[in-house]
């Protein structure tokens, strides 16, 4: 059941600690709730920037576009060498921003990678990336989150279906769907090694998730997410309606996708790593507030506050 999005109190009458108006209520709800998106997908006339009108049309419709290539082979080679250096650095491996795979000692993700690596700091300011973000979001932007998802060969674990915005709204206090992710392939993304999957058009529907956000949720959710994932019936309804696109592409290609796309990726049992960079740009007009459905905000390395 999809309801029009209206300013309302929380769907279940809500606990006193939740604000009176939440356009996208989620977690500790009773029952399934789908809410029509109330936010634009492309936030301005978008005439300025590297994206052509037909790309913006596709982005509005599907919630994502692919860019191939975004980076040249030489740039990718430097980034892969940098990622290998970071993964081998004991200080990086011990850092709380580094997430280890649940079933091995391999690195699953490195968060805030643009603050750890000078090369990445340079990349996130590159007009090919930030120009697209500004064009889509219709404003100046800042980095909400950056990460490398290594998804190593043989035991790279997956990322279950989710909307990033649902988590960023519930746990980071992101008010509106005015953020964009750019996923850059540093290795070939095949159909078989855990490529990103997106339901095209799913960004038009906000799917509330069951469950209550536990204290310190990020300590488990970044390794294997359970709270903040939709119910099977909702996922079936969305998949039946929208289908599932598998975003394959060579190293250097990229996917630019809306914060509310329903997406996920399978585990990787092939010998071929699926190592991608994810840079998330948020509009400066969409700064984080208090969490909408969590007992405390997440740390700054996951959700930047005070740019
Ligand atoms: O919780 C988050 O912010 C992270 N988790 C997932 C599965 N995607 C977005 C982001 O990396
Ligand atoms: Fe995600």
CATH domain topology: Jelly Rolls
Instruction: Find the structural class using helix and strand composition.
Output: alpha+beta
What is the second-level CATH architecture?
Sandwich
Largest sheet: number of strands, sense, barrel closure: 7 strands, antiparallel
Helix content: 25-40%
- Rg measurement, Å: 18 Å
Q: CATH homologous superfamily?
A: q2cbj1_9rhob like domain
Q: Provide the CATH top-level class.
A: Mainly Beta
What is this entry, summarized?
The chain is built from 9 helices and 14 strands. By secondary structure, it is an alpha+beta fold.
Account of the 3D structure:
By secondary structure, this protein is α+β, with helices and mostly antiparallel strands. It has a single domain (42-276), classed as q2cbj1_9rhob like domain (Jelly Rolls, Sandwich). 25% of the residues lie in helices and 21% in strands. It has nine helices and 14 strands. It has helices at residues 53-62, 73-88, 90-94, 113-116, 118-124, 127-137, 164-172, 218-221, 232-242; strands at 2-3, 34-36, 64-67, 98-100, 107-111, 141-149, 159-163, 179-185, 196-198, 205-207, 245-247, 254-258, 262-265, 276-283. A seven-stranded antiparallel β-sheet has the order 3-12-8-14-6-5-4. Strand 4 (98-100) and strand 5 (107-111) form a beta hairpin. The longest helix has 16 residues, at 73-88. The site of ligand 6CS has 9 residues, from strand 6, strand 7 and helix 7.
């Amino acid at each position: 059941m999809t309801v029009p999005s209206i300013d309302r109190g929380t769907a279940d009458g809500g606990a006193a600690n939740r604000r009176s108006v939440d356009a996208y209520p989620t977690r500790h709800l009773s029952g399934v709730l789908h809410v029509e998106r109330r936010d634009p997908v492309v936030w301005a006339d978008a005439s300025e920037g590297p994206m052509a009108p037909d790309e913006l049309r596709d982005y509005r419709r599907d919630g994502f576009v692919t860019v191939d290539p975004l980076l040249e082979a030489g740039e990718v080679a430097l980034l892969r060498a940098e990622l290998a250096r970071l993964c081998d650095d004991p200080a990086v491996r011990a850092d709380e921003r580094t997430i280890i795979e649940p079933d091995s000692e391999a690195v699953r993700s490195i968060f805030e990678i643009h603050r750890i690596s000078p090369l990445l700091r340079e990349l996130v300011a590159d007009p090919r990336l930030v120009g697209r973000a500004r064009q889509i979001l219709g404003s100046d932007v800042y980095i909400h989150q950056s990460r490398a998802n290594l998804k190593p060969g043989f035991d790279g674990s997956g990322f279950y279906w989710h909307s990033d915005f649902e988590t960023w709204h519930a746990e980071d206090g992101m008010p509106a769907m005015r953020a964009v992710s750019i996923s850059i392939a540093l290795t070939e993304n095949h159909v078989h090694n855990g490529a990103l999957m997106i339901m095209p058009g799913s960004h038009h529907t906000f799917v509330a998730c069951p469950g209550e956000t536990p204290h310190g949720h990020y300590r488990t959710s970044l390794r294997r997410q359970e709270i903040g994932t939709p119910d099977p019936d909702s996922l079936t309804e969305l998949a039946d309606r929208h289908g599932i696109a598998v975003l394959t592409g060579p190293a250097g290609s990229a996917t630019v996708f809306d914060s509310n796309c329903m997406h996920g990726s399978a585990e990787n049992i092939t010998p071929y790593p699926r190592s991608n960079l994810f840079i998330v740009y948020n509009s400066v007009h969409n700064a984080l507030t208090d969490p909408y459905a969590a007992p405390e905000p997440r740390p700054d390395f996951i959700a930047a506050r005070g740019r």
